[in-house]
Amino acid sequence: MNCAVILLLISRCFTWSSALYTPERAASKKLKYLLEPPVSADVTGQRGDNVTLPCIIRTKPSHYKVKWTKIEPEKVGPENIIMISNAHAFKPYGHLGQRASLRKAHAMDASLHLGRLELEDEGTYRCELVNGIEDESVAITLRIEGVVFPYQSKDGRYRFNYQEAKEACAAQDGTLATYSQLYRAWTEGLDWCNAGWLHDGTVHYPIIHPRPVCGGELPSGIRSYGPKDKNNDRFDAFCFTSQISGSVFYIAGAFSFEQAGHTCKNQGAEMALVGQLYAAWHFHNFDQCDGGWLKDGSVRFPISNPRERCGGIPEAGVRSFGFPDKNTHVYGVYCYS
């Protein structure tokens, strides 16, 4: 079969998740009320998990409140408050507040418990103790374990404006990746020659092996186009996804796209999304040397154990046959239930 097999070299991004602590104060100012945290601490953070962001009070002032917020530098408008509490009560705010509570492991514990983690929860959180005109805080960066994957329109290369890229990722069980997520994917092997939108509206592409068609003789790294016009400029997308609650499985056959959908439905399932296939490959080492239809009309297959007869490419990854004619009766189907 003379099909162009594209290796999507997606790194096993976030083989662990962590909460990194950065005291928000001048280097010379000692924390008076909050316990200075360690340099780092490991926190599990897959989608759907429950995590705790530590914040410990060392000395309680007579009157105080603790305010938890999520720091969003690119957001215009009011800060994203999650919860405000004092010694007697607490009040949650917004979408995050609905899934948040105080751990209260002891009298000095102001740690925030977040339930049912979502992809968008990754970021930096601030625990701030307010005592009249005095306040001090620590910042905690929550990282969610997941995988970054490039995504392209069925109509070809560079067809998405920013909003369309965001919607394309969401349709494939993902969200636009952050620069940090793309960077970590690059450090673990992601090499991709097409530029794509990121969550902050900038455009980049990661290169491990420099070559003439990918920036010439520039050294390896994250190539950046910087911020672009979100309405008029068009690129591909870098999406991020995490653990899935269901499972992906393959059904062999020679189906058209429509037949593939019926085949999954007969099994009480639906056609898998691209992000779901990547999650199965990344978290469960899903390995299937057969091209199969996905819900977006593309045909792909996941390889965890590279071998010659399965694309002949030495790296693990998700291979793609692109978007074949939907009337083609050649491929099986990947289902999700």
UniProtKB/TrEMBL annotation:
PROSITE patterns linked to this entry: IG_LIKE (PS50835), LINK_1 (PS01241), LINK_2 (PS50963)
Pfam families: V-set, Xlink
Superkingdom of origin: Eukaryota
Protein's UniProt name: Hyaluronan and proteoglycan link protein 2
Listed InterPro entries: C-type_lectin-like/link_sf, CTDL_fold, Hyaluronan_bind_Proteoglycan, Ig-like_dom, Ig-like_dom_sf, Ig-like_fold, Ig_sub, Ig_sub2
Family classification: Belongs to the HAPLN family.
Compartments reported by the entry: Secreted, Extracellular space, Extracellular matrix
Higher taxonomy: Eukaryota, Metazoa, Chordata, Craniata, Vertebrata
Span of domain Link: 147-241, 244-337
Organism of derivation: Neolamprologus brichardi
GO BP: any one term: cell adhesion
Keywords: Disulfide bond, Extracellular matrix, Hyaluronic acid, Immunoglobulin domain, Repeat, Secreted, Signal
